[in-house]
Amino acid sequence: MASHSTLLALLMSSFLFHTVVADASDDYCNFPAVFNFGDSNSDTGGLSAAFGPAPPPNGESFFGKPAGRYCDGRLIIDFIANSLGLPYLSAYLNSVGTNFSHGANFATAGSTIRAQNTTLRQSGFSPFSLDVQSWEFAQFKSRSESFVKQGLFKDQLPKEEYFSQALYTFDIGQNDLTAAYFSNMTTKEVKAVIPNILDKFTIVIQSVYWQGGRYFWIHNTGPFGCLPYVLDRLTLRAPDVDRAGCGSPFNEVAQLFNQKLKEVVDQLKKDLPLAVFTYVDIYSLKYELLSHASLHGFDSNALLTCCGHGGKYNYNANFGCGSMRMVNNTEVLVGKSCNNPFRRIIWDGVHFTQAANKWIFDHIVGGKFSYPPTPLKMACKKN
Ligand SMILES: *[C@@H]1O[C@H](CO)[C@@H](O)[C@H](O)[C@H]1NC(C)=O
Ligand SMILES: *[C@@H]1O[C@H](CO)[C@@H](O)[C@H](O)[C@H]1NC(C)=O
Ligand SMILES: *[C@@H]1O[C@H](CO)[C@@H](O)[C@H](O)[C@H]1NC(C)=O
Ligand SMILES: *[C@@H]1O[C@H](CO)[C@@H](O)[C@H](O)[C@H]1NC(C)=O
Prior knowledge:
There is one protein chain. This protein is α/β, with parallel strands linked by helices. The protein has helices at about 5-20, 45-50, 75-85, 120-125, 130-150, 160-165, 175-180, 185-210, 230-235, 250-270, 280-290, 355-365, and strands at about 35-40, 105, 165-170, 215-220, 275-280, 325, 330-335, 370. The chain has a single domain (about 5-300, about 355-380), classed as 3-Layer(aba) Sandwich (Rossmann fold), CATH 3.40.50. Helix content is about 40%, strand content about 10%. Helix 5 (about 130-150) packs parallel to helix 8, helix 7 runs antiparallel to helix 8 (about 185-210) and helix 11 (about 280-290) crosses helix 12 (about 355-365). One 2-acetamido-2-deoxy-beta-D-glucopyranose binds near residues 327 and 328. Keywords: Glycoprotein, Hydrolase, Signal.
């Protein structure tokens, strides 16, 4: 992680950098499609399609209604698609009203890299782990190619060449680490499973590569030790809270995961010579935002949940955002309790608000938080 002063310098120059590169439009990659793999941080409707919709007030700030996202509005992946001139990604699992002309989204909320040995009902983790998402992708690719060859569904499926020209985005891993903690592993034990988690990650990247994928944009994992659902559930196990109020052991694990992920990406660069990899440091941005919220125009009580109920963080696992709770024999919606979600960072105790997602996107798009420092639109170029 960059030191704070370095980080601030990067933050201040990242907008400027974006403007400067804008002149070199001939060099842009023109990605015709995005294929995304991940968890709730980038789910645009996958879990909703299979297990019931994300309830209101999700979606309220932008879509005006629930839109399959666990957020008041758009996610980082939405800002990515939009800035590449592409439509928002349809969830692969959605069977109605979808359009995959410019990509597909295999992410579902609660997804892990490693398949879990518990059901969604038992543990809250999605059955669509990363290996499943990669099988879905293989099906999607081979079946759409076969339809397009027959001249069928051309206006809702990608062109054949898009699979090698697309940007493949990944944002997954956080739930592997929280799942391990929630199964009562010690920090030492969680650290010990990281290599196994990343081995499974590598297998999926290789599989996409052998199917023709070339451009990989990989987000590292965020400081989940700052999230109310982790702090609330593991509170007795986190005596070490840092100045930002985040659980230090959890964030230490996230950082170890990221360090190893970066090594894995460096190795993949060597093993898969035709691919271009961009590793994006989401962790530093999220931590910077949460630890200096007012400096960046957000309310100072950074860890407080906007849509929730009760407790230190306005978060209670039994009364989640959009659930109903009984008050004097009447059902009441657990809705937005903050006046202005545009000034809040934490949406529902687990996920970031649209405003926070936009802030993060604005800082990664220019490349200052990427290794190598590649702007989004140049992520097809080898350094
Ligand atoms: C699930 O169980 C198998 C067999 O015991 C084990 O190899 C695997 O690591 C387990 N997965 C997780 C995520 O704990
Ligand atoms: C899907 O989107 C593409 C590009 O935005 C558009 O050309 C096409 O007509 C759409 N297909 C359907 C079935 O709406
Ligand atoms: C973890 O420990 C708590 C407290 O002892 C217990 O209630 C819970 O069932 C345990 N969870 C698992 C998955 O073993
Ligand atoms: C519930 O009812 C009690 C007694 O009538 C009343 O004092 C209280 O304000 C009510 N609570 C809410 C949230 O309406």
